[in-house]
């Protein structure tokens, strides 16, 4: 299994949730809202590039618009590899959290 950082996992889940609107600024805005804290562009852009190199996301350029001064947005989508990695990550997290929700172990406060 490829190991994802927490940020990479959050970004992949945001790309999944945003579907056809998954571009850098929108991903950052979505995560800032969910996490209830601001994020820099770099905090999203750097992991996006890394995920693209790893084959977890694919990118495609949208149409140029006058609003953006003729620049094109780069849209992201998950690959089959990303779905597999996310499913495994969820399995591991669920397994770890299951223990946390069990009754307190004698002598260890919860």
Q: How many DSSP H or I helices?
A: 4
Number of individual domains: 1
> What is the CATH first-level class name?
Mainly Alpha
CATH topology category name? Arc Repressor Mutant, subunit A
- Main beta sheet, described? 2 strands, antiparallel
SS strand fraction: 5-15%
Distance between the termini: 31 Å
Radius of gyration: 17 Å
Derived structural class? alpha+beta
| CATH architectural type | Orthogonal Bundle
Overall average pLDDT: 89
**CATH homologous superfamily name?**
Winged helix-like DNA-binding domain superfamily/Winged helix DNA-binding domain
Unreliable residue stretches? none
Residues in helix, %: 40-55%
Please report the total strand number as a whole number: 2
Overall geometry: elongated
> Largest beta sheet: what is the strand line-up?
1-2
Encode the helix/strand succession as letters.
HHHEEH
Write the layout of secondary structure elements.
Blueprint: H1 6-18, H2 24-35, H3 41-53, E1 57-64, E2 72-78, H4 80-100
Antiparallel strand pairs: 1-2
């Amino acid at each position: 299994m490829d190991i994802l950082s927490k940020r990479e996992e959050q970004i992949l889940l945001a790309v999944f949730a945003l579907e056809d609107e998954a571009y850098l600024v929108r991903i950052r805005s979505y995560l800032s809202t969910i996490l209830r804290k601001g994020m820099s562009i770099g905090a999203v852009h750097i992991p996006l590039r890394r995920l693209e190199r790893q084959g977890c996301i694919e990118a495609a350029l949208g149409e140029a618009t006058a609003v953006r001064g003729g620049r094109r947005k780069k849209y992201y989508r998950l690959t089959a590899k990303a779905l597999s990695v996310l499913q495994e990550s969820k399995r591991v997290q669920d397994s770890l959290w299951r223990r946390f929700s069990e009754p307190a172990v004698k002598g260890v406060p919860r």
